Predict the structure.
Amino acid sequence: MWLIIAEKDKSAKRIARILFKDVRTLKKNDVPYYISPSNGAIVLGLKGHIVEYDFPEELNDWRRTPLELLLKSKFVVKVRDKNVVKTLLELAKKAKRVTVATDYDREGEFIGFTAVKLVEKVNPNVKVDRVKFSALTPTDVKKAFSNPTNLDLNLAKSAEVRHKVDLLWGAVLTRLLSLSANRLGKDFISVGRVQSPTLRLIVEREEKIRSFKSKYFYNAIVKVKGIHAKRKFESEEEAKRLLESVEFLRVTKFQKSLVEEKKPIPFNTTEFLKEASKFMKPDKAMSVAENLYMEGYVSYPRTDNTVYPKTIDLKRLVEMFLNSEFREFAKFVLKHGIEPSRGKKETKDHPPIHPTAVANRENLSRDEWIVYELIVKRFLATLSPKARWEVKRVEFEHGFKAIGKVLLFPGWRFIYDYSKFEENRLPDFKVGEVLKVEEKIVKREKTKPPSRFTTGTLIKVMENLGLGTKSTRHEIIRKLYERRYIYGNPIRPTNLAFAVVNALKSFAEVITLPDMTAKLERDMMAIAEGKMDEKVVLKESVVFLSRVLKDVDREKLGEMIRDGIEKDREEEIEKNAIGVCPECGGTLIVKRARKRFVGCSNYPRCKFSLPLPQKGRLVVTSKVCEKHGVKILKIVERDGKWEFCPLC
DNA sequence: GCAAGGTC
């Protein structure tokens, strides 16, 4: 029997259908696999990593394990998906030949490698080979299977070292911070190669915003021919002085031009999440996209590719929408001729995210429809004509300027309505023409601090810095929320986040920098090329971390972090305090436990409490009820919002 | 109860 191992069920199915004519689907331990009786072949899909490295069980008790022991420890293999491993072993026992057909990348090589190691335990003499294809098309797959090669052990080792380095750093520093601050159980303080640099970005942006000194500036504005032209000044006097002196203005320059506005590029994971985050958190958007993929409505949502491969029949996909509520858009695209845009990143593994079937609004959940509509509109927009603008620039004496923009032809904007735009109409001017100043205004404005990251912009920044992968960035951000390091969107860091980042900066700064990932990438490359031994890389980490453990002042570290937590707690109380308790004079506080209610700060001495509605998002407003002197509360629900005083 | 990386 010939066993072919794929990375996931979907690819297993595809591979089986491409290679064999008589494919039957069977199930063992609830795991599907595909069999070709005539060829005596079985294709089994794994679920990504089915095993992972961990520390031996005796090191699991955080309190009782000196951190130095983690550095000396060996790694043990832990099974993550029992059913898949069981099925793999049962099938492998009977195999004469095993072919690894996992994704052709570093993690894919590692996944295949670990599967083979498991197989060899039950079937030591099995023949093993490896096929490499970068697209699941019949041509690519068949070609790969006619040229089987061997597993690339160095490539697999390079992924293995990443797993180990990440676990080592993550476990040692996570436990160090958590133990020092005495935050154990679900309240632990996490640290990691990707999450910590990401958190540092957010914290440092907040520091910039806090230290930002805004300056005033003054726009001298004149109205001529019904439009406003302006010039910027640093001082109000200068602006006023100039305005006082002008009664007529001569036109010194006038330009009218046609400007084409590029259409958006095809969706890869990052671009998709950036746009979808206007509606929901990235982890939510990702799981919704995953569902749509499983139901066959969109293509694989984890991709770096921003260029449609030639193998996709774009025209057929557009025509598919002629019988849908997107028909006007499909017609528009077909009428103007399909011309796909392309991004800078071109990879071979998966195409950009695009619709694969027509869905009806009624068959999808609300969130599914939002994501589906976004993907469809984006797809059609990438194929449609550019937008065309008429841009006018006019300049007057004394440096007054105005710019006008009018959308002449919407092109892709007709379809993709997710980015707002403004038009500003300007009449035509003639150079030399002298116009009467109809109105004069001085407007005071402020320079703005840098803006906070949103989940969307953060994902993009992470990608640019090489932090995380298309499949993990949304997870990392979710983790930061879950650990109470960040809140809101735009994202704000908590005091705990400040404490964690500053603590790490003081004794293990590398873990807060993207450079660590960059260096790890270089080391992995060297290992893959056979120029470096994985032991050397691991040793380096061990040496660094043992230095950290020796030097760090755990008392001080614990204090820093507890301070952060304490500050968060105080702010939380302050934010939720709504007034004075009518029974004891204590402070009334909105409590958000399993149920939410208004309680007294003197609890348990004072048992005063008020019920609150449990549904919708509750906001403490700054308005005060005139009758009771307590803050007005607001409930925000999907279909509206309402305000009330809890004492009324 | 640690990370980040696959996939569901």
Q: What stands out?
A: The first strand of chain A starts at residue 2 and ends at 6. Chain A has five domains: 2-151, 161-211+453-558, 216-262+390-446, 291-383, 581-644. Chain A is about 40% helix and 20% strand.
